[in-house]
Amino acid sequence: MAKTIRSKGQVALCRALVDARTKAGLGQEDLAAKLNCHQSLVARIESGQRRIDVVELVVLARAIGFDASEVLAIVAAATEPDHRI
């Protein structure tokens, strides 16, 4: 499997983040205000243009109100077994 930012795992992560945010009743601007960042950063994360690390996932989980381990399980299930770093 070729390394790509649009891997199945990355797409699943983006989808899970958007789903969690909308389920929480937050818009991108609302989330950006909670994170003290620009709305464009939230948009880049959600669209897959910017990857996030594990610490950022924890921060997002706290701001939105979801369990980071549940999102990790979704990403793990979607990630190909032969995906390379």
From TrEMBL:
Residues 17-71 form the HTH cro/C1-type domain. It holds the Pfam family HTH_31. GO terms for molecular function: DNA binding. This is Helix-turn-helix domain-containing protein.
